[in-house]
Design goal:
heterodimer, A: 93 residues, alpha+beta, Alpha-Beta Plaits, two-stranded antiparallel sheet, two-stranded antiparallel ribbon, 3 helices, 19% strand, B: 427 residues, alpha/beta, FAD/NAD(P)-binding domain, 3 domains, eight-stranded mixed beta sheet, seven-stranded mixed beta sheet, 16 helices, 35% helix, binds flavin-adenine dinucleotide, binds iron/sulfur cluster
Amino acid sequence: MNVEQKLSTNKFVVDEGNPHIVIHQEKMDAAAVKALTLVCPAGLYTLNDKGQLIFEVAGCLECGTCRVAVAHLPGAMEWNHPRPSFGVQYRCG
Amino acid sequence: MADYDAIVVGAGLAGSTAAYCMAKAGLSVLVVERGDAAGTKNVTGGRLYAHSLEKIIPGFAAEAPVERKIVRERISMLTDESCFTMDFGSSRFQNPANASYTVLRAEFDAWLAGKAEEAGCDVVCPAVADDLLRDNGKIIGILAGEDELTADVVLLADGVNSLLAQKAGLKKEISPHQVAVGAKEVVELSAGAINERFNLNEGEGLAQLFAGAPSRGLVGGGFLYTNKNSISIGLVITVSEMAKSTLRLPDMMENFRQSAPVKPLLEGGKIIEYSAHLVPEGGINMTPTLSADNVLVLGDAAGLCLNLGFTVRGMDYAIGSGALAAETVIEAKEKGDYSNAVLAGYQTRLENSFVMQDMHTHKHAPDFIEHTPRMFKEYPELVENIFADMFTVSGPSKLMLKKTLPHIRKAGLINLMKDGFKGSRAL
Ligand SMILES: Cc1cc2nc3c(=O)[nH]c(=O)nc-3n(C[C@H](O)[C@H](O)[C@H](O)COP(=O)(O)OP(=O)(O)OC[C@H]3O[C@@H](n4cnc5c(N)ncnc54)[C@H](O)[C@@H]3O)c2cc1C
Ligand code: SF4
């Protein structure tokens, strides 16, 4: 089972137009970009064929791993909690 | 006058415990929680050591939504070809003081927040505390959306990411060496199938930890816990290690569940949730400032969690720190003094309790684990090689010593002795 299928078992309420994570690739080095594609448990960071980092906020598990991975690079990421009522809602946890 | 004596940010185990104890002592308490209900944003591996909650709510397991009482422990070392498992069961686990239970946080946290509410707290969810509210620099409450809520003291129990402790200048940015990322699946399976598969009686549970192949030699490991009607299974890997990985975390997770020793355990089960969360594992070196005027930091927000390579423990520390924070605030209320002169008593209480004593006992563990990668690769391989040789017959037999020595030499006898010595003093 791939991760998209696993994520589809979760309950999410997406805050359309109000992403709680915003990335700034121009503030990242190559190592940070690579790290993001590896560490995100939901696999939400991918590279397109031009080497640009593509981030999909829907499916975010709100773990904060990406935040920590680029914490040493000022301005690389704005990471916040989703607004109340939005985001993942674990039924098991 | 402030709206409340105390505001607690986060209805996890630390926050709800603190709120419950303060309300029991007659304080007015507000809890804000960002999830739709307490627990809906929280993830754990699975095992709650009962001792700390037992002191606060004796016999809690009879009413709380615990899953199973753990009576069997397994540790497995995996390589791509083999699996070596130690299996331990003991009637000692029957004693309530030593007991541990598997839990699922959505249900468990909702129960504990309910206890706090019953004791008289206002629990508001969903509400995100966006920042601390200050008056001339003094912390006087929190800002949640448009709402300004005031209190004599704010308890930050907002978990490992604690954005508020950072904003308050109490905590530095987390480094990728200090936290692990945990990915977890909950796999639904009937109670009967679980009992049969793991050789358990009704209500009994098993905890299993996996070293070696699941983390592909990176610092980390796998876990499996049996719940009533499901199995929790996952991986925990240090973030700085994950950044060096050749595989993505979700793919490592899938490989783990598909691996030969694990797959049959989940056979016929259905994944009902996929979750992830950070685990503080920096130990005492990542402890933030725990108290200042009008503010305290609790639980994972304070880094009060241990990863000893074979087990993660944070829930009993969260509960313990919650109770001690409450004691301190109750004293501050009596004295009418919420400055750090009184609130620093929280640090002393922690130092004198199992919480900080454990952090000190295991203070070398994070360093040992990070600098002994052999624990996660060479040693599981060593065990595999020895046992594979012991049980393989394909011609004339050799003495045990002759079989094992080459493998030990490969791993390095000196390394093995050094690591054994250091490990026994760190873990
Ligand atoms: C994969 C994994 C396996 C683990 N296994 C075990 C184990 O087997 N045994 C064990 O003892 N420990 C284990 N742990 C550790 C344990 O889960 C934690 O130590 C424990 O949950 C910490 O509790 P807490 O109350 O401090 O924090 P949390 O449970 O994280 O609670 C924080 C709360 O604050 C809320 N919050 C955060 N920010 C805000 C805000 N701004 N406004 C409002 N609310 C907010 C959150 O929604 C949450 O409810 C594991 C952890 C992980 C991730
Ligand atoms: S918070 Fe976690 S799940 Fe969400 S994008 Fe970051 S790493 Fe991925």
